[in-house]
Amino acid sequence: MPDGAVMPLCEPCHPQPNTPPAVVLDNLVLERGGKRLIDGLSMTVPAQGVTAVMGPNGAGKSLALRLIAGLIAPSAGRLECMAGEETRRRIAFVFQKPVLLRRSVRANLDHALRTYGTPRRERAERLAELLALGQLTELAERPARVLSGGEQQRVAMVRALAAAPKVLLLDEPTASLDPQATAAIEALIRRAVDDGVSIVLVTHEAGQAQRLADNVCFLHQGRLREAAPAAAFFHSPSSVEARAYLAGELLI
Amino acid sequence: MQDFGAAFAEAFALIVGLDAELVAIIGLSLRVTFSAVIIACLLGLPLGALLAVGRFPGRGVVIVVISALMGLPPVVVGLAVYLMLSSAGPLGVLQLLYTPTAMIIAQAVLVTPIVAALTRQVVEDLHGEYDELLRSMGSSRLGTIATLLWDARYSLLTAALAGLGRALAEVGAVMIVGGNIAHVTRVMTTAIALETSKGELALALGLGIILVCLSILINAGLLGLRRTAERLAYA
Q1: What confidence tens digit (pLDDT) does each residue in A216-252 have?
Q2: Beta strand pairing call for A198-202 and A76-81
Q3: Which of A66, A133, A191, B175 is 20 to 30 A removed from B158 (C-alpha atoms)?
Q4: Chain A contacts of B139, Cβ < 8 Å?
């Protein structure tokens, strides 16, 4: 199938090589103030599974995520959503620090459903589903911004799932959470994977990547240094940078 | 001193006895000012939100002009509206001069920049926080503005109350375009000015006390709003 031939950019990222990837980044460049923050980044986001994006601070992980989301435009290069515009609108984003509206939990989710264009007659049912999914039913009427950090991030997660996303971009979603809250978020991630959502997870934690990831893309200085199945990456990283990073050395 | 004491006593008698003239003046004052603030909000909220979210040439100039207009002297607004509405003016045919409508127009002109400038500030700050989220959700421009206005509701109510306070207290604009005609365009501030100059201190004092009480009420409302917003983390 010719589709397969278009995507050889980072073959190890495919869990099922026969299904076309959801998003392809082709030689993306992002320049700011004369500096190349993203420097010729080519990678694919498979149609399913968890892709962990790892790398030291300043590697361009969050920028790569924002490029995929279309929140920033690349200075050069191409970004392709394989299912076309339909996928484009169904890429959801969860930020490290949850941005919640100044409303109740219920109103936050209702706003998302309306923004994502969920038909009116389905909204009440979806809303109840999402509240249950995030274990938020009892918190539904509380102002979202008075909740604990973990509860807020759960709201942000199920709000993203309100989009019925094809791709879910997670930018260090558990960076500031305790283990219990982290477990709740990871459970939501697994649940989304089971539902066929493709996840791109930026994380600093090797442990988290090992628990969740099917593939790892390792970035350093705005470039993709390594893309491999998670087991292979953690067992025997092929690049010098990834080896140093996993060994806990300071990468500059 | 005895005169003052007697004037105070008489003022309280007017207030407690709900003196008809006093009540009529207060009623007109509130009607004019509330109408003006509602109109100012209808114009100022969308204008401020548009300035906060939109990017167009001349935006910076408009923001500077509107901010400058916040401190517009009421007498100058009165003069400008007078020129517009006087028989020789462009809107003279409407015959609005010396009517409550003229006073509403003048106060709306006075308050709109306040509402617009405060709205711009508040919505711009909130937009900075919400921008990436709303864009990642694919929110339309109109949807974004609606979300921002609703989520800034406490701050915007504060802006409206600030406008209310200013309109209720000003005397210059309503004096010029209203003419302070008894039973037609006489409001609290113009009545106080007139009665004081006539030496009729009782009515002036009575109105003054009411005006101060209203001002305290408005500020108490502001404080209460701010407290509620902080408690709900909606500030």
Answers
A1: 999 999 999 999 999 999 999 989 889 989 988 877 6
A2: unpaired
A3: B175
A4: 115
Q: Using the beta-carbon criterion (under 8 Å), do B130 and A71 form an inter-chain contact?
A: no
Domain count, chain A: 2
Q: DSSP alpha helices (H): ranges in B54-140?
A: 59-69, 74-85, 100-136
Same domain, A50 and A108: no
CA distance B135 to chain A (A): 7
Candidates B122, B133, B142, B145: best to mutate against A (most CBs of A within 10 A) is B133
Report the predicted TM-score, pTM, of the whole model to 2 decimal places: 0.85
- Other beta carbons less than 10 A from residue B78's beta carbon: 25
Nearest-CB residue to A143 (from B139, B143, B232): B232
Q: What is the architecture, at CATH level 2, of domain B2-231?
A: Orthogonal Bundle (1.10)
**pLDDT tens readout for residues B96-141:** 999 999 999 999 999 999 999 999 999 999 999 999 999 999 999 8
- Where a domain ends, among A111, A146, A164? A164
Report the phi/psi class of residue A27: left, alpha or beta, with left for phi > 0 and alpha for psi in -120 to 50.
left
Residue range of the domain that includes A138: 101-164
